[in-house]
Amino acid sequence: MSRQITLIISRQDGPETTPYKETFKIDYRPNMNIIGALMEIQRNPVNAEGKHVAPVVWEMSCLEEVCGACSMIINGKPRQACSTIIDKLGDTITLEPMNTFPVIRDLAIDRTRMFDSLKRVCAWIPIDGTYDLGPGPRMAENKRQFAYELSKCMTCGVCLEACPNVNSGSSFIGPAPTSIVMLYNSHPTGEMNQEERLDALMGEGGITGCGNSQNCVRSCPKGIPLTTSIAFLNQAVNKHAFKKWLTN
Ligand code: SF4
Ligand code: FES
Question: Ligand 1: which of 64, 153, 213 to mutate, most ligand atoms within 8 Å of CB?
């Protein structure tokens, strides 16, 4: 008999319904990723008991660990389904949706809270109009290299999932939306709005929600120096608050 992979998948028919586990078996193929395994189930949605069921729902887009859409908990660890190869996981694999985000259906989650947090911290550089502005300002090489590392964030949500301070009892926006302020504030054009961003980090759910557990930096698939960035911002927020206190 050919080698088989058992997938135990957490399923949920809708946002308000009770989750349940369903087991599927697929034939092993070398170098298959989790998305490939889910596609096998989609082509033939028959569970391990031989019952024809609704195909499993998940989200994906780039298929190269750039968009963050396929993030889920694989064998207990939050990561991307497109870059996780089953050869490294053993013959029994569990798939669950991340807990920090509401479930839409099965493994598809709603990451709106992250995008709302990016809006809150003004995670963009305002450009006045669409006309040619000429070449952008130059950045010092060491600053550019740090900014490049920060810019790799794909809003996957894994650092929020790993952070003990992001939970239903806390309004903390989480590591990625906090750290991203460093990216925009270090940009020569973006720094024009740095005070606005620091203000956004000062309020309820802002940087004081960080408990320095360091789980975020250990879990980030892109190796983003989240804790370094958050430490810089902590100083910047304190200076900003002191300056405001002096001038008010
Ligand atoms: S900082 Fe890393 S773990 Fe957090 S959302 Fe961005 S890419 Fe994902
Ligand atoms: S599909 Fe984009 S990160 Fe996996």
Answer: 153
Q: Is 161 exposed, middle or buried (0-12, 13-18, 19+ CB in 10 A)?
A: buried
Query: Token pair 């740095």 is at which residue?
Result: 194
The atom of ligand 2 lying closest to the CA of 65 is 3
**Model confidence, pTM:** 0.93
Tell me the pLDDT band of 185, cut-offs 50, 70 and 90.
Answer: very high
Question: What is the pLDDT at residue 168?
Answer: 85
The H-or-E segment that residue 108 falls in is: strand 108-109
Both structure tokens of 39? 């596609």
- DSSP secondary structure letter of residue 137: P
Q: Residue 168 gets which letter from DSSP? A: T
Ligand 2, CB within 6 Å, residue ranges: 60-63, 65-70, 80, 82
- Of the candidates 148, 158, 172, the one whose C-alpha atom is nearest the C-alpha of residue 68 is 158
Tell me how far the alpha carbon of residue 107 lies from the centroid of ligand 2, in angstroms: 13
pLDDT band at 129 (very low <50, low <70, confident <90, very high): confident
Rounded to whole angstroms, how far apart are CA atoms 227 and 210?
10
User: Which ligand 2 atom is nearest residue 80's CA?
Assistant: 4
Reported as a pLDDT band with limits 50, 70 and 90, residue 133 is confident
Say if residue 127's pLDDT is above 90. Answer: no
* Paired tokens of 34: 């989790």
> What is the 208 CA–ligand 1 centroid distance (Å)?
19
